[in-house]
Amino acid sequence: MGDFRGGQQSRSRVYNVEAADPRSELIDRAHLSERDVVQISAVMEALGRYREAEQRLSEASLKYMKLNGTDMRALHFLIVCGNDGTIATPGALAAHLHISSASTTKLLDRLERGGHVTREPHPSDRRALAISITEETRQAAMETVGRQHSKRFYAAARLTSQERDVVVRFLDDMTSEITLVDEPWAKG
């Protein structure tokens, strides 16, 4: 029995299929060569490293901006709306975040109190509000989180067109595989 002390080796072991499922209880790999299993484990390890880096970035940005994850997703949505000239409404924000109108109101109250957003009458619908991110918060988000996230573009730009097609197909396939449909333990 080995010693699981931590560090890079232990992190990669967590994503290694042989270590995680040695008896093939979850993954039938009888039709795969040893080389295939090693390569697939390397892909899973790379995904794990990427996920950990994303998590560290997310945690650092939340701490810097003094906001929670939903707040940050709301601000990102408002930045995109502002960039493309779309008027953001509470209803559109609720739909984007998959939260109730009551939760949206609480969210907007909190963001407005913090000086992150403004609410004004909608220019063409007197029953709605138009929500905008403040320039100070927009700049802070762009200079911190936005600048870090934009680096992903360069990683994709270094790929060939064919490689990007493979990556997109792979990520879409991974997304469809892990979508929580009809999983009783995931309902809540």
UniProtKB/TrEMBL annotation:
Keywords attached to this entry: Coiled coil
**Which InterPro entries does this chain map to?**
HTH_MarR-typ, MarR/SlyA-like, WH-like_DNA-bd_sf, WH_DNA-bd_sf
Q: Which residues form a coiled coil?
A: 43-70
Q: Which domain of life is it from?
A: Bacteria
- Give the HTH marR-type domain ranges: 40-176
Q: Which PANTHER family does the record cross-reference, listed alphabetically?
A: TRANSCRIPTIONAL REGULATOR, MARR FAMILY, TRANSCRIPTIONAL REGULATORY PROTEIN
Q: What is this protein called?
A: MarR family transcriptional regulator
Q: Which organism is it from?
A: Gulosibacter molinativorax
